[in-house]
Amino acid sequence: MGHGTKKWMLLCLLIIFPLVALAQRNEIMSNRIRSLQVVAGENWQDPPIISLEEAKRMGTGRTIRISFDDMTHEYHRYVYRVVHCDADWKESSSLFASDYIEGFNDAVTIEDNITESVNTNTLYTHYGFQIPNERCSLKMSGNYRVMVFDENDENSPILSACFMVVDPRMGTSVRMTTNTDVDVNNRHQQVEMTLNYGDVNVTDWRSQIKTVVLQNLRYDHAVVNAEPTYITSKGLAWNHNRKLIFDGGNEYRKFEMLDESTVGLGISEMDWDNGHYHAYLWPAEARLSYVYEESGNGAFLLRNRDNREAEYTSEYVWVHFSLPSDRLPGEVYVNGRWTNDLFLPQYRMTYDEKKHRYETTIPLKLGYYSYQYVQVLADGRTALIPTEGNFYQTRNRYTFLVYYRPIGARTDYLMGYADLK
């Protein structure tokens, strides 16, 4: 990542999060790596969260599954290191690894799932591992970041993968209403939450409790530490809080490629040209009224038609995106969980004056993808594309996270979690 990109991302975060600079984004640092996935068990649409009880089991039960492709058939000895993070996703620097991990954590080799691609035009090697596993388990709730390195260069990670472990000792709930202080049944959605401390000793909620509210798991839209409406000795509540009013937006767009030659959902044409397979999506026509259509809210699932051995038999296809539109202020990006909600050059669209539309091409592995078009303004703020629509009926996902730091503790624990989908 170049110096200019880093500077822009920092500016964006400072504008959106003046109190806490969140950085919970999976990130690929090597141009040789693609298709990074971080999944809790088999729940590919859900947040990457497991319980503390699950995290303590070594090699049994539900796990966090991390996988990626190296776009060569050359074996690389990749190793990983697990890091505990505070609520703001900065490393818990006051902790020792032995405080939060049982077993090995110093350059653990990925060796359980390594397979070269078979019968694919694009060569790659698939790597995968899970946490906890037979060599290590986790002893503490909170945020975790896994750094993956080439064994020969442990100063330069190739990727960062984020997940969470929750110890649900606090009672939480989250609901959504379209009766907001901005409008009623129009364009906005109001999120409301409750928090019950349970048996957790909270003596100063302002210093001990940190909250995060996410829409569709997007950290660039996160609302951090919204002031509660009601405060009691047993907990907190947020009702009709203006900071928790979100644009409804619209359902995510979607497409599916199950093989490299058959036209699938959302695709107008499949082709072979210049040594690659190509998929051309239908142009994204304006959506001026709301029509419900189930989508993955940005999630993606790598699969093929047989859905067998998809990890290493699925082809890579160059996917062509097209957004008819007038030229808009700022830049326009394709966005989804598979872009890690990062507005990077490889996801930026260019404007074609003659065709009167935005276009870009992204190489993607066979599977199902949900996505949206996002406008990034000059000051780093994101905005809805006017032609995408903004409706109160949209089926958005809202996630409520509660972190707790006991007096004198050295990090934040994830003690509450609620998810509305």
Structural write-up:
- The protein is mostly beta strands and 421 residues long.
- Helix content is 7%, strand content 42%.
- The protein has three domains: 3-166, Sandwich (Immunoglobulin-like), CATH 2.60.40; 171-248 and 396-420, Immunoglobulin-like (Sandwich), CATH 2.60.40; 253-388, Immunoglobulin-like (Sandwich).
- It has five helices and 31 strands.
- A hairpin with a 2-residue loop joins strand 21 and strand 22 (276-281).
In short:
By secondary structure, the protein is mainly beta. The protein contains five helices and 31 strands.
Q: Which characteristics define this entry?
A:
single chain, 421 residues, mainly beta, Immunoglobulin-like, 3 domains, 5 helices, disordered N terminus
Q: Could you name the ranges where pLDDT drops below 50 across 5 or more consecutive residues?
A: 1-21
Give the biggest beta sheet: 6 strands, mixed
Count of individual helical segments: 5
Q: What structural class results from the helix and strand content?
A: mainly beta
Secondary structure tally: strands: 31
CATH topology of the largest domain: Immunoglobulin-like
What percent of residues adopt helix (DSSP H or I)? under 10%
CATH class of the largest domain: Mainly Beta
